[in-house]
Amino acid sequence: MPLQPFDMRATFTDEQRRVGYAVYFLDVLEAPERSKWGGINGAISAIVRDLRLLSGSRAMAEKVLIDLAECHTKGEVYCGARKADSGGKSKLFSLDSMEMKAGLGLT
């Protein structure tokens, strides 16, 4: 049986990737203030550009920064987990919910 091509993206979970974006923001971009997140030279554009994310990843990168700032304000550790109401392919369903029973919680 021939070897399948290795997908490097499968090496990390979505949570680990979001933590990576947060670390890049903190350590490389030196956590610029919120007024410097937007725009072509802002932190969000830098994350998408420098980490070679898909162009549609701007909203996700901004959400990481918002969540990171919220954790900082609350004195919590940022772990990269999505909130249950955040939408997207990683939306969480209760194991006994109608969505899970219909198979919608499986991706």
General description of the model:
The chain has 107 residues and is an all-alpha fold. The protein has a domain at 8-74. The protein has helices at residues 14-28, 43-50, 58-74, 98-101. The protein starts with 13 loop residues before the first helix and ends in a 6-residue tail after the last helix.
The average pLDDT is 81
Terminus-to-terminus distance: 26 Å
- C-alpha Rg (nearest Å): 16 Å
Q: What is the 3D form?
A: globular
Major β-sheet profile: none
Helical proportion, percent range: 40-55%
Structural class by secondary-structure content: mainly alpha
Please tally the helical runs, counting DSSP H or I stretches of 4 or more residues: 4
Task: Name some characteristics of this structure.
41% helix, 107 residues, 4 helices, mainly alpha, disordered C terminus
